[in-house]
Design goal:
664 residues; alpha+beta; seven-stranded mixed β-sheet; 27% helix
Length: 664
């Protein structure tokens, strides 16, 4: 077997990020074409781009899933991860950021800094991820280099270093002029930028000296690697002008991946694709160690209810991104590979413990909307449910729940665009037509107190269940999900029965007293027993919901509604009207700050009001408002909580539940 090695200068994994329509996918295509990775330049409008592989992505002109492509420059292998730009796919972007070594943030020279651009920059700065800025569309009418640079400094970060200028900006003849450290004026600008964090450079400037070129070049690389400075490039992805300078900047300023091949393997799955035969292909970024084909690995996962799980598989295929087709090699630190042989794999699964991260990976705010999906043809209901379950493997936050009537499936979503994409995917990739009902908010329940329940085997008469179970339910700490504990002696019941109780308890808590998922709850097994040889696992799985819901009813629950943190920039003369509408929709205003001739309003609003606010704002602000919101926790729901239909009978009604499980 031929062992592949990384290029001499290593590997750097970068993401191309932007607001929708800023030119992110076009820039990715240009980078691949100009570096020789592809021999034909694709077009977003024509649907021929390399990274937008899905039919829906090509038709809509937006990126939905993270795609990977690769090129080499000056001995450095650059893996490009082209991430979604639409807000409905925020979780996909956040997962991708966790496997990057650096990023290129695209800003339109015409529209300037847009709402989504600011959100992405906040995430990049939070992670201290080395970031280059690329001001795109300099050849478009309306492009203004001076204005967009001021916009970047005011609304993204003042810590930018323009790496060139543009002649004839705003015309088809626009051409970038790269800056050079050989230019004394540019050297001085770089030194002034470095001086804010470099005492030695500051001292040199105070003494009237400009540091030498090599010292400035080293300082710019170090500051960029630490996320303190951001080299900014101008250009056009369509014409290719300025892209060469950006490629040079990627190789020069973004630090290559680090990691020891001698350490235990650690990595993260950031994308999953399903082939025509149903086999999954997972994209795995390796942080340390090495992997080869036919090796067995164990992946760790944090479930939606806060629990942890793991699954093991053997790698039947391992194709390293950037390696020659068919090459048999090992995946080394910093590399990305498409792997197969992991039937249970999901996006977000972790191998080992990546540097600075827990084995279960980051936790994302769950979607705040639920929509019922029903097939156009009733006989397609099982196929629709199976297809939605398959989509949940690619995005685990798209939770699925079969409805009691068996004719529909409820799915969790972030927004209306995601709903449209899922509907198109069902039709085009799975061959089933479905309609979505109106979206509704997804609420949560938390225990309001402590409750206990017990049911044991009555040996004086034939019991409904040959099992003894006692449970206590109480509130857990915020963000803990579901925690299952035991006060019973180890071995009091067979391990299979014990697992049946825990697994069923977690599943039962997906619908609480009002039908909503229960979170931040501690369930303790206080009593357990069985009768050999008549007890079975089914007895424990059927009795657990009844005992658990009785304990939960004694504890009581309070319903919470999901919220969004929002930022709203609006003209100064519209503040009064807009704040009135915010109050009308129950929005909390955290801060109101003047921003030139405008106001920046921040706060929190219930997720169920976001769509209505987005519809009303243009009319109140002459279309000049900039709105951004993202999931951000929850708050107690005022008034009487709505009830969601159950799918497991009604464990609060013993007789009805026994009929439901066939033990009446």
């Amino acid at each position: 077997m031929r062992i592949s090695t990384a290029p001499a200068r290593g590997v750097v994994n970068i993401g191309v990020l932007a607001h929708v329509d800023a030119g992110k996918t076009s820039l990715t295509e240009r980078l691949l074409f100009d570096t020789g990775a592809i021999d034909r330049l694709g077009s977003v409008d024509a649907g021929t781009t390399r990274t937008d592989t899905g039919a829906i992505e090509r038709r809509r002109g937006i990126t939905i899933r993270s795609a990977v492509a690769s090129f080499t420059v000056d001995g450095l292998q650059v893996n490009l991860i082209d991430t979604p730009g639409h807000g409905d796919f925020v979780a996909e972007v956040e997962r991708a950021l966790g496997v990057l070594d650096g990023a290129v943030l695209v800003v339109s020279a015409v529209e300037g800094v847009q709402a989504r651009t600011r959100v992405l920059m906040k995430s990049l700065r939070r992670l201290a991820l080395p970031t280059l800025l690329f001001v795109n569309k300099t050849d478009r009418a309306g492009a203004d280099g001076t204005a967009v640079l001021a916009d970047v400094r005011a609304r993204l970060t003042p810590r930018v270093v323009p790496m060139g200028t543009v002649r004839d900006i705003g015309t088809p003849a626009a051409r970038t002029v790269p800056a050079s450290l050989g230019d004394p004026a540019f050297r001085e600008r770089v030194a002034e930028a470095l001086a804010e964090d470099d005492a030695w450079v500051l001292g040199e400037l105070v003494d009237g000296r400009v540091p030498p070129v090599e010292r400035l070049r080293k300082g710019l690389a170090e500051h960029t690697a630490r996320g303190l400075l951001h080299p900014l490039y101008f250009g056009s992805a369509l014409s290719g002008d300025g892209v060469g300078a950006l490629v040079d900047g990627i190789a020069r300023w973004l630090p290559p991946a680090r990691g020891s091949a001698a350490a235990p393997p650690a990595g993260s799955v950031f994308a999953v694709e399903r082939g025509a035969t149903g086999e999954k292909t997972a994209y795995l970024r390796l942080f340390s160690g090495s992997l080869g084909r036919r090796e067995r690995i164990t992946l760790h996962r944090r479930e939606a209810d806060g629990g942890r799980s793991e699954h093991t598989g053997r790698l039947t295929a391992l194709d390293v991104v950037g390696a020659p087709p068919g090459a048999a090699g090992r995946l080394l630190p910093g590399g990305i590979a498409a792997v197969r042989g992991l039937p249970a794999v999901r996006v977000g699964d972790r191998l080992g413990t990546p540097p600075g991260g827990e084995a279960d990976g980051p936790h994302f705010a769950p979607p705040g909307l639920e929509a019922v999906v029903r097939p156009v043809r009733p006989q397609d209901a099982p196929a629709v449910h199976a297809a939605l379950t398959a989509l949940a493997d690619q995005d685990p936050l798209i939770g699925t729940r079969a409805l009691p009537d068996g004719a529909g499936t409820a799915v969790l979503l972030y927004g209306e665009v995601q709903k449209e994409v899922v509907a198109a995917t069902l039709r085009e990739e799975f061959g089933v037509a479905a309609v979505f009902e109106e979206s509704r908010p997804v609420f949560l329940e938390r225990p309001a107190g402590c409750g206990t329940a017990y049911e044991g085997i009555d040996r004086h008469r034939t019991p409904a269940f040959w099992a003894t179970i006692g449970l206590r339910v109480e509130a857990g700490r915020a963000g803990s999900g579901t925690v299952f504990r035991r006060e019973t002696e180890l071995g009091a019941i067979p391990l299979a029965f014990d697992r049946a109780v825990e697994e069923t308890a977690r599943r039962t808590l997906l619908q609480g007293l009002h039908g909503w998922p229960v979170t931040d709850v501690v369930v303790t097994l206080t009593h357990s027993g069985y009768a050999s040889p008549v007890s079975t696992g089914a007895d424990f799985r059927r009795l657990t919901p009844l005992v658990l819901m009785r304990a939960l009813a004694e504890a009581g629950t309070r319903v919470y509604e999901p919220c969004h943190a929002y930022e709203l920039e609006l003209p100064g003369d519209c503040l009064g009207a807009v704040t009135g509408v915010l109050a009308e929709h129950g929005a909390h205003v955290r801060d109101t700050v003047p921003a030139g001739d405008a106001w920046l309003v921040t706060g929190v609003v219930a997720a169920r009001h976001v769509a209505a606010l987005e519809r009303r704002l243009p009319g109140l602000t002459r279309g000049e408002a900039l709105w951004w919101s993202a999931p951000a926790g929850d708050r107690p729901l005022p008034g009487r909580p709505p009830v969601r239909e159950r799918t497991d009978g009604n464990p609060l009604d013993r007789a009805a539940y026994l009929r439901h499980v066939g033990r009446a």
